[in-house]
Design brief:
Helices cover 44% and strands 12% of the residues. The chain contains 5 helices and 4 strands, in the order αααββαββα. The chain has a 4-stranded antiparallel β-sheet with strand order 1-2-4-3, with helices on one face. The chain starts with 9 loop residues before the first helix and ends in a 15-residue tail after the last helix.
């Protein structure tokens, strides 16, 4: 359900260019969206999803660091909470982006049932839902491990490079 908000400094909102800003509030007055958003916020607070993301994120960082120790093509592990990025590189010395390998890893993960995307051509984007069951999170990490292993072993054909597209 669509919901939006607009936040800007007062001098921008009061400028002559904003004489008729009605076009900026397309979804601003939808009562059903507002009720849905309030319910989502209530659940977010009731489940302490911020605390859960912090706790699980600490464990996830350890697991992803383990992957970096296992595979020299992971040049960096960065993130916070349940949002991480793994840099896929040609080698640890140059840390040159390895876009083709990132594409193959994502494609193999998709074949195994995990939607994994990449940014900047080589950064695997790991962003599970804040309420993901813990066993499902670790299963996803296992799929990432298998996908990296398969891509490095040449088990993912070059044909996928034509269809695997990221940002």
């Amino acid at each position: 359900m669509a919901l939006s908000a607009l936040v800007a400094r007062a001098e921008l909102m009061e400028s002559p260019d904003w004489r008729s800003p009605a076009h900026t509030f397309t979804h601003g007055g939808n009562p059903l969206s507002c009720v849905g958003s309030l319910a989502a916020i209530d659940e977010f607070l009731a489940q302490d999803l911020t605390g859960r993301a912090r706790r699980l994120g600490e464990k996830l960082r350890v697991e992803l660091a383990g992957l970096a120790g296992e595979f020299e093509v992971i040049g960096d592990v960065r993130g916070r909470g349940l949002m991480f990025g793994l840099d896929i590189v040609t080698d640890l010395d140059s840390k040159r982006r390895h876009r083709d390998l990132a594409k193959k890893i994502c494609f193999r993960a998709w074949e195994k049932g995990l939607v994994l995307t990449f940014l900047n051509g080589n950064v695997l984007r790991i962003t599970p839902a804040l309420n993901i069951p813990e066993e499902l999170l670790w299963r996803g990490v296992g799929i990432i491990r298998e996908s990296i292993r398969d891509a490095l072993a040449g088990k993912v054909p070059d044909d996928v490079l034509k269809v695997a597209v990221g940002r």
